[in-house]
Specification:
Number of domains: 2
Signal peptide: 1-38
Order of helices and strands: HHEHEHEHHEHHEHHEEEEEEEEEEEEEEE
Strand content: 15-25%
CATH class of the largest domain: Alpha Beta
Largest sheet: 7 strands, mixed
Protein name: Ricin-type beta-trefoil lectin domain protein
Helix content: 25-40%
Number of helices: 10
Keywords: Signal
InterPro entries: Ricin_B-like_lectins, Ricin_B_lectin, SEST-like, SGNH_hydro, SGNH_hydro_sf, TAT_signal
Strand order of the largest sheet: 2-1-3-4-5-6-7
Distance between the termini: 20 Å
Radius of gyration: 24 Å
Domain Ricin B lectin: 388-512
């Protein structure tokens, strides 16, 4: 693969601050260890509404009295409409900083936020419920699962109660990170290794990463099936509501130095080796996303691919949608796992992005869709397919070489040139016909860019903005600036840089996708 050498990691010189952060990061180990997998109960035969166990019926009656003034269970058509989210810290609101009473310790650390995505969509609903909990595994969601805290229900039980009191329009599930993947402890170890100068974590985790993903897929699948069973037992047909399995975005990436106001890793909380941020964005999160997509496809759920949603908005970027390493100093005593658990989670802006994507998905007929900020507008856009299906190599007809991002880097100004085809992420491209932009698979927020739309200009990578120098059209097998139809993208030789040249009909200007 055509790559440059990895840059040496840079360390801060503030030893006292590093020592405190190292101790704090070390305390995070084991933060999200899941409970043992529970065995689901047998499904109740269909036909009508199945009665709840007495303890859950008591909860249902109390909630009905709060909603309607009496405990009766109403016909579906007479109920208030509702949305509900289940899962782990990614959707609970962990990282936002404001939390519902009783979920911010000391005996319950679910960290459910009033600013979580489910409460902020544009979907018409009388009530919204967030029953997710930071640290949850599928064992805390499934039928017959285990409680995380004494005052919490198993999440499928919460769904069973609310499905009988309201008319559920959408169920959102975000789960899997705390099962075999153990994303929290892995992230913690990567940060700790950086702070203690122990070397990158990629060599430690990359060899077994796909096996971890393979292990979590059947657990997520069974969780989805259990939620279907809960809804059927509450009297819902499968088509009466939308069941969405949402994937996870990468909170980190390697392009933070393009931030003109980059304050340094210590200040913005981007603690990690540069090579680990590359592995996380380019390999770890995409593998996880493919696993979640498989689970959704195998269970008939609607799938939302958010793997690229935070591209351009990662930790330490100009407008970040995720929180970096964060220590809550309001907690007494030395930093522990609970004072650090908000680290590397979506912030309030990140949940606004989730809410926008969920709204667009709810209003779409697509069974699979992806969401990203395609032109750095700050507004996520939904596309009706999964990202894995749209990125393709662009092979030059004359040389047989593929368009290649030099060194698999994605910083602004990186050269684009020809290279032997190998189907790496730095050789796959997406032509967004609706906007006329050409995106690299490395990151959603980097596009082909001609600094000036004139003959002889090199075409490089640059932050996507949708300007005239980034807008192209496909004419046959040629790619031309939308504002200068007489110019074509040209690859003069197998390893030459990509340039604009006057269109001449030659194979140097023809690309097959």
């Amino acid at each position: 693969m055509h790559q440059t050498q990895r840059a040496r990691p840079r360390h801060t010189g503030r030893r006292n601050a590093v020592a405190v952060l190292a101790a704090a990061a070390a305390a995070l180990v084991g933060l999200h260890a899941p409970a043992a997998q529970a065995t689901p109960s047998a499904a109740t035969p269909s036909g009508g509404v199945s009665p709840l166990p007495p303890e859950l019926e008591k909860v249902r009656a109390a909630e009905a009295a709060q909603l309607y003034g009496d405990p009766a269970q109403r016909p579906l058509a007479e109920r208030k409409s509702a949305l509900i989210s289940l899962g782990d810290s990614e959707i609970s609101g962990e990282g936002v900083g404001t939390y519902e009473p009783g979920t911010n310790g000391p005996d319950n650390w679910c960290h459910r936020s009033p600013d979580a995505a489910i409460h902020r969509t544009g979907i018409a609903a009388d009530v919204t419920y967030n029953v997710s909990c930071s640290g949850a595994s599928t064992a805390n969601i499934r039928i017959g699962g285990s409680k995380q805290y004494a005052d919490e229900l198993v999440q499928s039980d919460s769904l069973a109660v609310k499905a009988r009191n309201t008319r559920i329009k959408m169920v959102v599930l975000v789960a899997g990170a705390n099962d075999d993947l153990q994303f929290g402890p892995v992230m913690t170890d990567c940060v700790t290794r950086f702070l203690l100068s122990q070397g990158p974590c990629e060599p430690k985790y990359a060899p077994g990463w796909q096996s971890r993903v393979d292990g979590l897929v059947p657990k997520v699948e069974q969780t989805v099936r259990d939620l279907r069973t809960v809804m059927r037992d509450a009297g819902y047909a499968d088509g009466a509501y939308k069941l969405v399995v949402m994937g996870y975005p990468s909170p980190i990436g390697p392009d933070f130095r393009d931030n003109p106001d980059f304050p340094g890793k210590l200040a913005c909380g981007g603690m990690g080796y540069d090579s680990d941020t590359v592995w996380g964005r380019n390999a770890a999160v995409p593998a996880f996303e493919r696993g979640v997509r498989e689970a959704a496809a195998n269970t008939g759920a609607t799938y939302l691919d958010n793997s690229r949603l935070f591209h351009g908005h990662e930790v330490c970027m100009e407008s970040t949608w995720a929180r970096g390493l964060y220590i809550d100093l309001s907690k007494p005593g030395l930093p522990d796992e609970n004072s650090l658990r908000q680290s590397f989670h979506p912030n309030r802006a990140g949940h606004a992005a989730f809410a926008s994507c969920l709204t667009q998905l709810y209003n779409s007929p697509a069974r699979e869709a992806s969401c990203a900020d395609v032109n750095s507008s700050g507004k996520p856009a939904l596309v009706p397919y999964a990202w894995d299906d749209v990125f393709k190599p662009l092979k030059n007809q004359a040389s047989g070489a593929c368009l290649d991002v030099d060194g698999a880097q994605s910083a602004n100004g990186t050269r684009v040139l020809g290279w032997d085809c190998h189907d790496g992420r730095n050789q796959n491209w997406w032509f967004d016909a609706a906007r006329g932009t050409v995106h690299t698979e490395l990151t959603q927020d980097r596009c082909l860019d001609a600094k000036s739309v004139t003959a002889g200009t090199d075409v490089v990578l640059w932050n996507c903005h949708g300007g005239a120098n980034q807008r192209f059209v496909r004419e046959g097998s040629t790619i031309r600036p939308a504002s200068a139809n007489g110019l074509c993208l040209t690859l003069a030789g197998a390893q030459d840089p990509l340039r604009l040249r006057a269109c001449d009909g030659s194979g140097q200007q023809r690309f097959s996708a």
